[in-house]
Amino acid sequence: MSDYPPTGLSKNVKELPEWIQKGCGNDEYFCEEKGATFLGGNMPDELPDLSEHNNFLTDVLKKQPELYKSLKDKKTKLGVTLGHCIKTGIDNKGHPMIKTVGLVAGDEESYELFAELFEPVISARHGGYAKDAVHPTDLDVSKLTDTKIDPTGKYVLTSRCRTGRSVRGFKLPPVTDFEERRKVEALVVKGLLSMEGDLKGDYFPLHGSKSYAPKPNGMSLEKEEELRSAGNLFQEPDSTLLLSSGCGRHWPDARGIFHNDDANLFVWINEEDQMRIVSMEKGDDIKSIITRFAKGTEQIQKVLQAEGADFMHSEHLGWILTCPSNLGTGLRAGCMVKVPHFSARPDFKAVCGKMGLQTRGSAGVDSASTGGTWDISNADRLGKSEVQLVNIFIEGVAQIIRWEQALEAGENIDEQVAKASLPAKY
After folding, report:
1. Per the annotation, does 420 bind a ligand?
2. Which pLDDT score is estimated for 370?
3. pLDDT band at residue 48 under the 50/70/90 scheme
4. Is 333 annotated as a binding residue?
5. Helix (H, G, I), strand (E, B) or coil at 386
6. Is position 25 annotated in a ligand binding site?
7. Which of 18, 218, 367, 426 is the most buried (most CB within 10 A)?
8. Does residue 205 contact residue 255 with C-beta atoms inside 8 Å?
9. 276 is in an annotated binding site
10. Any idea which architecture 38-125 has in CATH?
């Protein structure tokens, strides 16, 4: 079918700008207009000029340019080259406000075969993570703190927890081929559809996807719009970072979303990661959110294991995901919280940073806040367990709300804020 991947482009992709279309077919992204001309499958002998680049990958390559030559002819057992991993960082020179990683994994072995490059990037991105460090994994919800984030119910609008998972034995989205992506979808959906009770739900492929027999043309446009407008569904890749990484190939085939009947557990399939799992609800009951999330991931893993598969995981790096920024737990526990007084302080973001928290505007990374509403979440992913990170998030946001209440009452909080730090026990 010339009007559908892998030999052609799907109808909805043909309506997108040409520079996006070029990343949604079968081939590596090549677009002179966007400066995306490095090819992982056909690497140049010499490392391209990186003098104007600013990302974690090129920082390492500028210091150790010899790594390019020593690694460029190596290939993982599944066929991933160094070029597949570094293409997005070579094509994209960097962002003035946000330092990107510039490096993706094409499969689980990429992290080992190209470790000389991945390890310094991982260490720089995660604030100094040693080559021999062991990452703790702990999803025991009984260890969560009893601290209530927002006892009044006045400040927290919604809370959510998200992470990713990958299936062992398959290439990751940047390099996976057409049939392999369909196999991942079938395997994961089988696990999701086996869930019962409050996790029971259905799978909705993206509109136009022809990979899933029960819904041969994917979900309706209305359903897609409903999910997107609620912030629960990804869209086609519209950045050269994603297109160069390879995550747009064969769009929209074998991609979609599962959600339970209560619409508080969502699983994205075959976007940047094979699975992105999101548990959410209104209010601040993070315990029930994490419990649902832990139950869901456990059930998916059981079905995978029954099929002879499992999640990618290592003692050193934790859960293996496409981008090194998400290694370890891959976990982001966050809430939309309205704190106009505290967030108006010039030291707001710096204080949150000292407490192990990350702030985003109400529309995501690098966006502005609306009416003092911020998305606040744990900053770290690697080196601390899931339970530790969620507890850091709970204690930190609870403290921010107490400060907001103090400011509302006209009190001075400068002395307290000066002592802000990570909770000692975490």
Report:
1. no
2. 65
3. very high
4. yes
5. helix
6. no
7. 218
8. yes
9. yes
10. Orthogonal Bundle (1.10)
What is the largest distance, in Å, between two alpha-carbon atoms of the chain? 68
Residue 33 pLDDT > 80, yes or no? yes
CA-closest candidate to residue 107, choices 182, 169, 167, 172: 172
Q: What is the DSSP string of 279-316?
A: EEEESS-HHHHHHHHHHHHHHHHHHHHHTT--B-EETT
Whether residue 292 is annotated as binding a ligand: the answer is no
Question: Phi/psi class of residue 240: alpha, beta or left (left: φ > 0; alpha: ψ in -120 to 50)?
Answer: alpha
Q: Is 145 annotated as ligand-binding?
A: no
Q: How far apart are CA 318 and CA 137, in angstroms?
A: 7
Q: Binding residue per annotation — 158?
A: yes
Q: Write down the pLDDT at residue 363.
A: 54
Q: Which two tokens stand for residue 149?
A: 């984030």
**Interior/surface letters 127-148, b for 16+ CB within 10 angstroms, e for the rest:** eebeeebebeeebebeebbeee
User: Is 332 annotated as contributing to ligand binding?
Assistant: yes
Query: What pLDDT does residue 163 have?
Result: 93
Note the pTM of the prediction, 2 decimals: 0.91
Write the secondary structure of 66-89 as one string of H (helix), E (strand) and C (coil). HHHHHHCCCECCCCCEHHHHHHHH
Digit-coded pLDDT (tens) for 147-157: 999 999 999 99
Element (H, E) at 375: strand 373-378
- Annotated ligand binding at 168? The verdict is no
The C-alpha atoms of residue 406 and residue 71 are separated, in whole angstroms, by 56
98: confidence class by pLDDT, cuts 50, 70, 90: confident
Query: What pLDDT band is residue 361 in, cutting at 50, 70 and 90?
Result: confident
Q: Using the 8-state DSSP alphabet, how is residue 265 labeled? A: E
Question: What is the structure's pLDDT at 116?
Answer: 97
365 annotated as belonging to a binding site for a ligand:
yes
162 assigned ligand-binding residue: yes
Residue 334 marked as a ligand binder: yes
